[in-house]
Amino acid sequence: MSIIATKHTHGTASRKESNGSIKELPYYIILSLLVIFSLGPLLLLLMNSLKSDAERGVNPLGIPMHPLLSNYVEAWEQGNFSTTMPNSIIISLSTVVGVCILAGMASYAMTRLNLPGGAVVILYLFAGSSLPAQLFLVPLYFLWNSLNLIDSLPGLIIIYLATLSPFATLLLRSYMLSISREFDEAAYIDGANKLQVLIHIILPLSWPGLLTVALTTALASWNEFFFAVTFIQREKFMPISTSFLAFQQAFTRNWGLTNAAAIITIAPMIILFLFFQRRFIAGLASGGLKG
């Protein structure tokens, strides 16, 4: 009897598992379609970056029959990536550090110091993050010209700090609001001041939020083109987003080199995101706010 009951139990469990798998099948199908939709253009870009113009015309969507790694060498040289990539690294790192400092201090003040007029500041930040910065291009250009900030990396970095800080502050503020004030009170009881609470308590607990701010800021400053091409004229200060101008001719464009240049441009950001994604998830799992 016990053997029969055990078999019946295993049979019931297997039927439940199969029914559960059948019910979850539509979700797997939808997720698979989303993966194809997301990675399809990137895979197509990678394949076309290895094709010649003739092969791309005959086989635009297929696997390259004769891969041309020379497209990457030529794109690197023609796009002057040896100059533009270091410039973009300097710009992105400086912007990320500056935005994290500004957003961290502003978010702490808005969530912990009970400043008067906080609602007005939030409204101002919403307006600053929603209005297109191109509206202020003409007065900004004249101001930067009078300050001798045209055609310089610091001038471009300041613009990125001003345009990216409002959204970063709102994002980090929403994260700091979820941190219990009991941490602050315990630190105050131990004799800490507000600066020590910020540095030793709030920022360590907020590092997943800071990491999100850093990733979005790095991506935005790395890909920005409009201000870069407007405020930078000398070739030695050009960021990586302007390298695509080298592949445009009068009436045609070398799409093989353009695709290779696109892979070179996005590869650092993809690697950066994949590298920090694990740490972001680990920070959420092991932070002081879990449970």
TrEMBL record:
Taxonomic superkingdom: Bacteria
- What keywords is this UniProt entry annotated with? Cell membrane, Membrane, Transmembrane, Transmembrane helix, Transport
Q: How does it sit in the membrane?
A: Multi-pass membrane protein
Classification via Gene3D superfamilies: MetI-like
Which cell locations does it reside in?
Cell membrane
Stated family: Belongs to the binding-protein-dependent transport system permease family.
Q: What is this protein called?
A: Putative ABC transporter permease protein YurM
Q: Which organism is it from?
A: Reticulibacter mediterranei
Q: What is the lineage of its organism?
A: Bacteria, Bacillati, Chloroflexota, Ktedonobacteria, Ktedonobacterales
